[in-house]
Amino acid sequence: MTSKISCTKLILEDIRHRGWTAALTCTVLFLMMPVYALLYLRSYSQSLSDPYVFENVSDSFPGLFTGYSMTIVSVALAAVAILCALTGFSYIHSRERLDFFHSLPITRTRWFSSTYLAGLIILIVPYLICAALTVGVGAAEGIMTAETASRSVQSALGGLLGIIVIYNASIFAVILTGRTVTGLLASLTVVVYPLVVLTVFSLLQSTYFDSFYAAGEPLANTLSRYLSPAGIFVTLARTGAHGDLSLSCLLAAIVMSAALAAVSLILYRVYPSEAAGNSIAFSVLAPIVKVLICIPTALFVGVMVPEIMAIPGTTVILPLSLAAAVLLCIIVEFVYHMDFKKLLINWRSSLISIAGVVIVICIFQFDLPGYDTYLPDEDKIESISFRPNAFDQYFSYPDEYLSDSDYTASPDVTLGIFAPKEAKDILYKLAQSGISNFKNGITTDSIYNDSESDAARDYTCTVFRYKLSGGHTVVRQYVISREEASQALEQLLEYEDYKRELFPIFHVDKSRVTGISLSDAYASPASLTMSAAQRQELLGAYEKDVLGMTSETLLNESPLAEFFLEMSDTADASSPDSAGTSSAYSDNWSQVSVSMFYIYPGYTNTLKLLEDYGYSIRTEINPADVSSVTLTLCADSIQSGKYSDMLSALSDTASISQYDIDGGTSITAYSEEDISLILNSVTPYQNKLLDDSIRSGDYMDIDYNNEPSGGISLE
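-> structure tokens emitted (715 positions)
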């Protein structure tokens, strides 16, 4: 006959027997949340009057609820969640206790529910109390603004759901096992297992596929936020602390918790009494669990060890993975049986694990899916973008620096601008050429690993994006010849809309520009003193010149000078009407400096306005304006004899010293003759649109008599 004792009484009795767990949980959370928050805020008590410090402290405070601002808090939260699960269901690992509990006239469902809820109460109630105390600490210290309070509530909610997910994952692991020690190991495994599997897949892609390019966040990372307990926990901590806790993340945590709790209940209802004391409760699952653990873990070890040890190539991955698979099989079998004589008793699952590792590596090694040679059918492509590596050294977009990403509706320029539909065939043929180069052995590795090779000089790595008709976007990276890239760019620049998307000046919110600085041959950015109206007029003239620029100018000419735009980093900041006085490297934390707005000889409108405003662009450095020059030459430049004539012609007043064991040299000149000799002997490095060659490493620092010092990279 089933007892009608209420579940509430069972819960209270369970909590009473687990009083030490509740006490430990309260102590840990109290120390890690309100006490640490108080110490953290008190450490800044003397400087909170500074608006910058106050904003930083207010910004980091919500992270204290989840450990986002301090990793040890996250570890403590996960630890108490696992502890509550282990102490609640540890009785199923003792045959005597398990038989006693299940002999009582109480259904297994009620036992599970009461134990589950008791652990949940021990976990949740202290957390909520400590979260409330932490809010009180923030309010008492005067940093609890309306925004901070809102973010703190979201962070606390994220932390609460996060520890509930870990708690349910740990219960699932405990019920799968028959010993407390293996239950703890299983808890750690279940929490991180999906994350490891997804990470391994991403690592194998980036390691073996030459055309793989991580466009934004890898798919594996995105999936881990919703499919892995650890991923959900970290995502809740991060988004909660930032105040952007999303509905999808909340639903993922709720669904994951509900699914783990439901599966745990089902397993508990059929949990065999004879399983107590065994490493794994369900013997039929033992080989399956072994295979599931060994394959991804062995692959993870095989890929990560060479990366950590900086071993190039992929030849060592297979033997390392096989060695790891064998070792893992031995460890798992020993954990199962605790007997060295039984290590080979389940040899079939060991063989499957080893074979699985070999199969997975072969799939990636020989590119059986055809990843590197994949090219969508042209009729299924809506548009294509391409972005050579050289663009990174030539273009600088405001949204890469401004914290307010919604300040303008600029496209995702980091991966290239989609070409007009009528120009799609231009880039499609270019992509075909990239695949052909791959088949002929011209790969990204050959470019990156030997920057001095003919291939590196004649070819460039280029990212392609295919926007398919179904809305899906495919990203690949190919090596294409600079000549073909130049020809394609010449044709694309005939389209004005493409120019407007490609050039950073058209992504600038001009109302945010608070100052403009000019850097010419002196490489010493000087602030242009002008009104807001004059700045607007100058930027308008610059836009007009950019639209009228030919591809010949971009590809073959060197710029005369460069604009630096001082921009407000906050959306509500207004550009002052007074003359701009900030330098190109502003010390004001609310300002950012955006560079790489190049000025060419053909920019007649811009040059005329600068002349009208009283500014002229200098194309050569006058030695009389220089007080000293420090030339830093790398070992290769010294050994090649590139500057031998110059070094031998320097006077005795020049200081020459070796600065490293490889033969690098530093030369400092003070006399006008030596300065003139050095200036005439070096060639400044000038950015060109498709020039992504490795710079020599030579550098020149110049101290001027009447203006700030400048620094110039050399060819």
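The two ends are 91 Å apart (CA to CA).
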